[in-house]
Amino acid sequence: MAACPAQALGSEQTWLEAAQAFIQETLCPAGEEPDVRLTQQVIDCVKTTWLTQGGNQGFTLPLSYRFVSVRDLRSHQRPPCCSHLSWSSTEYQAWAQEAGLSGLPLPREQLLLLGTLTDLLEDLEQECRNGSLYVRDNTGVLDCELIDLDLSWLGHLFLFPSWSYLPPARWNCSGRGHLELWSVPVPVFPLAGSPGPPSPLSVLYPEAACRLLGHSSKPRVVHPNLAGKLVRLSALVKSQKKAYFVLSLCEPSPAGSHAGSHVSIIVQVPAQLVWHRALQPGRAYVLTKLRVSRIAGYHYRVWTTGPSSQLLPLKPECVRELDLGLELGGPLLEADPKPLPRTSNVPDRKDQKGLVRDSRLLSYQGTVTGVLNQPAGIYELDGQLGLCLSYQQFQGLRRVMRPGVRLELQDVHLLQSVGGGATRPMLAPCLRGAVLLRGFSPRKPETQSSLQALGASLYEQLIWEQQLGLPLYLWATKALEELARKLCPHVLRHRHLLQHSSPGNPSLGLQLLAPALDVLAPPRIPSRDAQREILEEPHRCPLQKYTRLQTPCSFPTLATLTEEGQGRAWASFDPKTLLPFPEVSHLTSCQLNQRLAWSWLCVLPSTFRPAQVLLGVLVASSRKGHLQLRDQSGSVPCLLLNEPSRPLSDPRLIGCLVRAERFQVVVERRVRSNFPSWKELSIAGFIQKQWARVSVQFFLADALVLSVPRPFLHPGTPSTPARTEPALPNAPSLGQSRLFLLSHKEALMKRNFCVPPGASPKVPKPTLSFCITASWLGGTQRKEGTGWGPAELRGDENLEQKVLLIFLGSSIRWFEFLHPGQVYRLVAPGPPTPMLFEKSGSSCISQRPLELAGCTSCLTVQDEWTLELESSQDIPDVPRVNKALSESSLTDLLSDNFTDSLVSFSAEILSRTLCEPLPVPVWTKPGSSGARRGCVKVTVALETSDREFPPHLDIYIEDPHLPPPLGLLPGARVYFNQLEKRVSRSHNVYCSFRSSTYVQVLSFPPETRVSDPLPHIYLAGLLRAGRAPFRAMASCHIVSVFSLQILWVCAHCTSLFIQGRCTHLGSTCPTQTPVSQANIRLLVEDGTAEAVVTCRNHHVAEALGLCPSEWTSLLEFVRGPGKVALQFMGPGAQPESSAKAEPLTRFLRTLCTSVSVLRPVVLSFECEKKPSKISPSEPPRLQRFQCGELPLLTRVNPRIQLLCLSIQELKHSGSLGASASAC
Ligand SMILES: [Zn+2]
Ligand SMILES: [Zn+2]
């Protein structure tokens, strides 16, 4: 720097003036005359320090530096900074480079800091001392940290040549920054050495001190001095009552330092707490004027310091050993303190599952390389070890901790493979060991997110109140991080999740962890006793013993859960498993693809490792009407029941946080495929599109429901709650309401409503909506304070006022909460409008349906209106509603009687398939298949109390009821209300959804399904009115064969396939793949009745008693002609054209009349017709027989028609049926 000397002289003058003014203001005792000597001393001190560094470039004064007061640092220094007067730029650069390896170095400022080093926060109070260290000037006081304190520095004025200042971090609620003093401070005035005690000092060494303690009588040595080498330093323990630490001295000479001979000294005088910063393990000290005292609750005595005790370095030449034998004046009673009685109130946890391990106590020096969780006190050391400081009170150290800090850990526990997701070995000091700062970090602290800053007091609570061991604590901190990522900040504020838990204000985080912690945390063990933890041998502390933790559970985001569910659904999707052989080999292309089109998978939490916990906020979708669980990652549709058969009806659940360990993830797979035939099933290319719908379902009784504080809305923001998700208003101060009793709810579907006059003239589109019919209970009530005023009387209260309430737009969010038989309050917030609930809505629903429903009025529920559930017991004039679900009688249900075509029943779903839409038009033009949405067929078993075997029924769900509501899954129990009953051409009763249908899932599919074996019955049992099973098995005899047909059809168009060609006209079929189909009709009897059994496809092989290879050869023979069809006249009848018959026909004819087919079998079957026809409506007929000359007239039961499910050979049936076992 080439500054001209005159200029430099001028700036020196300015600098000196500024310095004088500064010193006068900040360092001179307030209100006194300018202290010239002090000013000169300070400037000299600065000058000397400045000149010692190499980079002063010939300037005698650090002109580029300015003085800074404590107040200026505190109030103006926002970013952290450092200042190194004694460092050259090269030194700083080398230092910064070291920091810059993995972060930013602290920015350098050119500041001169002076102040008095003290352990007093306030000027006067002795009791204020708690071992902390401060730098003070006239303008204020700053916390500081120092590596190696010399006690003689306290109370003196220093220039700090090298320091950094860190403003308070976000987690730091004290709001005070702190100084890190890098190098030895330079005293402004030379430090006068303290006079010290007269030498030689008579001292006791540890062994003698121990013996003295053990002596029962009061020692005659008054306040002896103890000398020895520092071997152990405990943590500084601060409780509400007092603060203290314990140090242990051993014999200073190597010869005498065997393990047992050390003595512990408690330091608890406030003014001596600062010793904790000065003591260095390994050095030798003398502590003067010690006393013996007894600790409350202990049987033994310890050395403690007195108010006038001093800590001095041990200089062997200045001490002489006290002759103990002489002083005691007699023989020692006991050489050693009594062994401590083992405490027995701590439960022995050896019987816990898993191996209990012992941690190792060791000392370690290392550098912090990462901050893993600042509030939880978890760091990374040397890139490979974990460090958890939370088992100590480490508030002072916490602010210093960042990558680059060097630490020495004395008597720290090493825990290896703690489990619970922690991968590295952990070091954790308990109160017995000290964490000593060995070096500050040159790195600038990183800005912290809320997650990195909040929650320290909650984590402390986990350790000090919940008393978690380290493995569980590590898991809990991970789980809380996981929860915060899942929920904060949009669903929940960090401070709500991580706040300190108090009785009236529990922490949500702790509540969410509680179910897992309750199982794993030890039962209430006595709280930590710091003195025992430090002094007692053998050592006991929460870190001493540990058990490897199996990760109890995790809280995946809903997006992860959905992904995982989909992943599993597609990983397990295998067309060959869904369509097992040999059944699949007879399916046409169309049947095949339809069977693959819908399938589902239920994923249970127990199949995850670790178990997954479902967690989210319950939201009612105003777009789709269903319930959702939501977190930051997204939402998942959910189906909730309070408990089996009890639907959800309280809208207050909206917005609550729901935590469930028992739940089902339901993945519905939709596949669009064009497999030409079963042979190509393994070729994935035939799958054109696949998509999955993931939902969850669970009982609220199994879940933890927590109300969540409403998100704080900034008053200035103009954004109103989005129309799609109106927030629940917090108890509006104005409003009116009216009670109603719900009598019927209709389906949620797209309906046409007229546009109210004045609304947008767009062509009305069908809107997702639903209606309920209800009865008003009393009149409108106005808001009065927090409750509701008396009902307005209008004179027509005695009439039953039925109303049709229409929910469209965002009010469809109430759909899941409305159920017949419940009383609700409809609340309209805002200033009361007369006749609000009385006037008919503008929804222009035509008058006719209203009349049909018997309603006098119709009202559209506005978006901002809300619903509340009322307990009907509280309302005096509620008509006693029958809350039981109305059910149609079985006779009504199954008869052809159509006086009421609307039926209601509860049933268990047996199967669900996609099929062609009803009614029949199967053939659609090619290319229009996209528009055809098909139809869902659900087969149910009716729940009947009076029947042994429940009748089966098919329910068809078509547009606009597609996709079906959540929960219609095989195994689920469902209540259907107002289904439309129809009868097919073959007189089968079936049902279909209509707009007034109300569906309520009663229970979810059981987690494990065991299929009951079919009942074994006599065929005559099927004739008993209404008491026959739909599926059963019977041991019977095949009497005769009526007909047999085997053919090959085109897999694409089902036309006959002859000579390797499809016979469809024009034959434009894209693939020429034939599939075989077969069908046989048999007469069986079991001695009680006869039945005609139809067997199809591979069951024909079973009926004919052919083994797979024989069946395959037979099918190959048919391939040539394409079709074989045989009719049999009855037992013993002759074929009409046997002469002309083909060999194949002749063979089949012979086979079907031989004992290979006509044999005893075990037949599993289902009734060919669904219940209506088998009912006794068809009485036994009179039939005429000719017996020789005699005509006979006899009653004959109608023939039972059965469909074969399987045919098995009768066991131990001798020679019959041998052909089946021959191959
Ligand atoms: Zn310990
Ligand atoms: Zn064809």
Sequence-ordered SSE layout with sheet pairings:
Elements: H1 5-26, H2 36-52, E1 66-68, H3 70-76, E2 81-84, H4 89-100, E3 111-118, E4 133-137, E5 140-146, E6 157-160, E7 162-166, E8 178-181, E9 186-187, E10 201-204, H5 206-214, E11 225-233, E12 237-238, E13 243-250, E14 262-267, H6 275-278, E15 284-287, E16 290-294, E17 301-305, E18 311-313, E19 319-321, H7 324-328, E20 356-358, E21 360-373, E22 378-381, E23 385-388, H8 395-398, E24 406-415, E25 426-429, E26 435-439, H9 450-453, H10 456-464, H11 470-487, H12 494-498, H13 508-520, H14 530-535, E27 545-547, H15 558-571, H16 575-578, H17 589-597, E28 598-603, E29 614-620, E30 627-631, E31 634-643, E32 646-647, E33 657-660, E34 664-673, E35 687-699, E36 703-706, E37 735-745, E38 749-751, E39 767-784, E40 787-788, E41 802-808, E42 823-829, H18 847-853, E43 857-861, E44 866-870, H19 890-894, E45 902-915, E46 935-942, E47 952-957, E48 973-983, E49 989-992, E50 998-1003, E51 1031-1050, E52 1057-1058, E53 1061-1062, E54 1074-1085, E55 1090-1096, H20 1098-1104, H21 1108-1119, E56 1123-1127, H22 1143-1152, E57 1160-1167, E58 1181-1187, ...
Parallel strand pairs: 1-3, 5-8, 10-11, 10-19, 14-17, 23-25, 31-35, 41-43, 47-49, 55-60
Antiparallel strand pairs: 2-7, 3-4, 3-6, 4-5, 6-9, 7-8, 11-13, 11-15, 12-13, 13-14, 15-18, 16-17, 20-27, 21-22, 21-24, 22-23, 24-25, 24-26, 28-34, 29-30, 29-33, 30-31, 31-32, 33-36, 34-35, 37-39, 37-42, 38-39, 39-40, 39-41, 42-44, 45-46, 45-48, 46-47, 48-49, 48-50, 51-54, 51-56, 51-57, 52-53, ...
This protein binds zinc ion (2 copies).
The site of one zinc ion has 7 residues, from loops.
